[in-house]
């Protein structure tokens, strides 16, 4: 017997209606049902931060939320940030400061940092390090990410 539940949610400004299994994770819904594969899945138990998206504007780990819990809510994924031709200042700063290597962690960092910079447009290095403390990167050693956040803050200040 089918146990599908109807949900309606907004993702990156577009409204979707789908029938989903109650056990379906929001991360899998975004990737497999909507094809938004910019949201990455690392640990699938809330540790690595790779799956971070905005949920009603707040950063959350989409592997810890069921798709049914997103019913009636607004989700923003990394696909909404910028385009190749028009990068978000944070994406441009990551590029300029070499703040990624394999890039697997990058969408999660970006989605955690965008609301952080909106709330704190001139962060100290300690504040930046605290802001990224919930995101794991196996490649960079973090220093270039910290430098990129400082550069992004400068770029956003002059916009
Ligand atoms: S995949 Fe969600 S926190 Fe690691
Ligand atoms: S750039 Fe490879 S995990 Fe962060």
Q: Would you mind describing this structure in some detail?
A:
- This protein is of the alpha+beta class.
- 33% of the residues lie in helices and 16% in strands.
- It has helices at residues 26-33, 89-96, 106-119, 125-131, 143-157, and strands at 5-11, 14-20, 52-55, 58-61, 74-76.
- A five-stranded mixed β-sheet has the order 2-1-5-3-4, with helices on one face.
- Helix 2 crosses helix 5.
- It is elongated and about 50 Å long.
- 40% of the residues are buried.
- The model has no long low-confidence stretch (mean pLDDT 97).
- Bound molecules: FE2/S2 (inorganic) cluster (2 copies).
- One FE2/S2 (inorganic) cluster (FES) binds at residues 41-44, 46-51, 61, 63.
Helix-strand blueprint:
Blueprint: E1 5-11, E2 14-20, H1 26-33, E3 52-55, E4 58-61, E5 74-76, H2 89-96, H3 106-119, H4 125-131, H5 143-157
The chain binds FE2/S2 (inorganic) cluster (FES) (2 copies).
One FE2/S2 (inorganic) cluster (FES) is lined by residues 41-44, 46-51, 61, 63.
């Amino acid at each position: 017997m089918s146990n599908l539940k109807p949900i309606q949610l907004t993702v990156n400004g577009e409204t979707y209606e789908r029938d989903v299994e109650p056990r379906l994770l929001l991360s899998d819904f975004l990737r497999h049902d909507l094809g938004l594969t910019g949201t990455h899945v690392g640990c699938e138990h809330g540790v690595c931060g790779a799956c971070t998206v905005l949920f009603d504007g707040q950063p959350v780990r989409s592997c810890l939320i069921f798709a049914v819990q997103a019913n009636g809510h607004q989700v923003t994924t990394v696909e909404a940030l910028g385009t190749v031709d028009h990068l978000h200042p944070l994406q441009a700063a990551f590029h300029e400061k070499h703040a990624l290597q394999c890039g697997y962690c990058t969408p999660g960092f970006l989605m955690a940092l965008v609301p952080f910079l909106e709330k704190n447009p001139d962060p100290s290095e300690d504040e930046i390090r605290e802001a990224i403390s919930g995101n794991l990167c196996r490649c960079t050693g973090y220093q270039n990410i910290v430098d990129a956040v400082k550069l992004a803050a400068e770029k956003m200040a002059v916009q």
